TrEMBL record:
SUPFAM superfamilies: C-terminal effector domain of the bipartite response regulators (SSF46894), CheY-like (SSF52172). Residues 152-217 form the HTH luxR-type domain. GO terms for molecular function: DNA binding. Gene3D superfamilies: 3.40.50.2300. SMART domains: HTH_LUXR, REC. Signal peptide: none annotated. CDD domains: LuxR_C_like (cd06170), REC_NarL-like (cd17535). Residues 11-125 form the Response regulatory domain. It comes from Nitrospira defluvii. This is DNA-binding response regulator. Keywords: DNA-binding, Phosphoprotein, Transcription, Transcription regulation.
């Protein structure tokens, strides 16, 4: 392939905290795309996306430091030209709906056929949306029934983006000072958010907050 053809390839950032998975995604994409970066967490993604301004971002929902859904909301403001393709283990109707609300152009599952990823990339580059057939039927059915499915998360939806960020970092085992440093806010502000989250969710300990975040699909076990 000529240098000119190489330059025409869509530029992609891969975001997954599992190195083996990221390597597999890279192998699938490289024949048609130029992979410009692989990162492991949502906050690193925001930095690299703003620096590299890729055409496509292929990302997991469950990411350390900043989950994929909240990262996507930041990306929609910082790099609106970048198309977001979610490739996740999370398949609930709530996660899918939130992903598209956050600005995603495609949503696939990690158990989807490998060829679906390239199909999704080609679709979003043409301005189309893509939803894997593995969950499309459930999403349509739940929408028709006015339901978000049996794994919906109205509690998480009702938290503010900042509260979700604080909840995730606390659930990952980070102390108050570390959370404050990562979010560039005062320790007292972190404590205030934690109090409001606990009050809102009717939870009464850090352990309970952590369990809730895991059950609701905000962080991994």
């Amino acid at each position: 392939m000529s240098e000119a053809d190489q330059q025409k390839k869509p530029r992609v950032i891969i975001v997954d905290d599992q190195a083996v998975v990221a390597a597999g995604i890279r192998k699938l994409l490289e024949p048609d795309c130029e992979v410009v970066a692989c990162v492991e967490d949502g906050r690193a993604l925001l930095v690299e996306a703003e620096r590299l301004r890729p055409d496509i971002i292929v990302m997991e929902v469950l990411l350390p430091s900043l989950n994929g859904l909240d990262a996507a909301r930041h990306l929609a403001r910082k790099v609106p030209e970048s198309k977001i393709v979610f490739l996740s283990i999370q398949g609930s109707s709530w996660h899918v709906a939130e992903a598209f609300k956050a600005g995603a152009s495609a949503y696939l599952l990690k158990r989807s056929q490998p060829s679906e990823l390239t199909q999704a990339v080609h679709a979003v580059l043409m301005g189309q949306w893509y939803l894997t057939p593995l969950i499309a039927k459930d999403v349509v059915k739940n929408h028709a029934n006015g339901s978000q499915g049996n794994k919906s998360s109205p509690a998480l939806s009702s938290l503010t983006p900042r509260q979700r960020e604080v909840l995730q970092l606390i659930a990952e085992g980070r102390g108050t000072k570390e959370v404050a440093s990562m979010l560039n806010i005062a320790v007292k502000t972190v404590e205030f958010h934690k109090f409001r989250i606990m009050d809102h969710l009717n939870l009464h300990s850090t352990v309970a907050l952590t369990k809730h975040a895991i059950v609701e699909g905000l962080v991994r076990l």
